[in-house]
Amino acid sequence: MKLSFLVSGASVGALLLAATPVSAAPVSLQVCTGTSCWSANNYQIADGVVVNWTNVQQLANANGVSVDQWEASRGLDVSGWSLSMDSDPFVTNNFTITNTSGSTQTYTLGTSIGISPAIPSGAMQGSIGFTLTDNNSNGATLATSGASIYKGMIDGNVARTLWDPSTSFTAPFASTSSNTYFGFPTRETASESVDSTIGVLITFSLTAGDSVAFTSNFDVVPVPVPAAVWLFGSGLLALSGVLRRKRR
Predict the structure, then answer these.
(1) Is 74 helix (H, G, I), strand (E, B) or coil?
(2) Contacts of residue 233, Cβ cutoff 8 Å, sequence gap at least 6
(3) Whole-prediction pTM value?
(4) Do the Cβ atoms of 148 and 165 come closer than 8 Å?
(5) Which of 222, 225, 226, 214 is CA-nearest to residue 89?
(6) How far apart are CA 129 and CA 115, in angstroms?
(7) Mind listing the pLDDT tens digit of every residue in the chain (248 residues)?
(8) Is 61 helix (H, G, I), strand (E, B) or coil?
(9) DSSP three-state, residue 55
(10) Distance of CA 1 to the CA centre of its chain
(11) Buried/exposed code over 163-173 (b: 16+ C-beta within 10 A; e: otherwise)
């Protein structure tokens, strides 16, 4: 399995974090302020390895792309970003972001992982939580910006959303936290097969000078074929064998 990041200008080989991984996946990572995005693709990540924002910054800087300058020019500071995957497939998208500009900004941070083999029928679950912090004693607001805050993605399409448009949270002179989820305790059936990728996309607006720390995940597992189907298939095979013998 392969993990891929959306962050432009970085080298694939430098993120080989295990000498002989049991499995690996291509990962894509994306950071956007409004419509200005920074992205990277096709990092090969070993099963279960956690990748953090420092790894990505070091890679990009070594390849002539200054992440710090990009962040400063776009009025944001990303920290504490960690991503992990497993061959379920499973993906997390955890990060802290501070709006260093002088006005409310809209941000999008996302990651996806490549999967193999495909999952014809899947069952999914996911969650998102945050802590919103007022850094300048004038109140902080986290809100949707024309789209759901959380999107669980399958093959680039939205499979499930949480905190849909018109949702907002405030932290008056302190901090506040909240979380929500789907597929617990019973997983939801995915409406489509999983052919190539799953991912988490988080889009939100944040007031000037304030910070928000997100944790999120999206998990899809194959739905077992019912025993009756296996028995029916076995019966057909046995019957075809009998008919072949009779013809002989």
Answers:
(1) helix
(2) none
(3) 0.78
(4) yes
(5) 222
(6) 25
(7) 333 333 333 322 332 232 233 456 777 778 888 888 877 766 666 666 666 677 666 666 665 667 777 788 888 888 777 776 665 688 888 889 999 999 999 999 988 888 888 999 999 999 999 999 999 999 999 999 999 999 999 999 999 999 999 999 999 889 999 999 999 999 999 999 999 999 999 999 999 999 999 999 999 999 985 544 444 444 544 544 544 555 55
(8) helix
(9) helix
(10) 15
(11) beeeeebebee
Token pair belonging to 73: 């020019």
- Read off the tokens for 157: 């399409």
Write down the residue that tokens 């420092």 correspond to: 54
State the DSSP H helix or E strand holding residue 220, giving kind and residue range, or none if neither.
strand 211-222
Share of the chain residues as helix, strand and coil, in percent rounded to the nearest 5: 15, 50, 35
User: Domain residue spans in the chain?
Assistant: 2-247
Q: Token pair of 160, please?
A: 């499930």
Residue with tokens 């006005």: 103
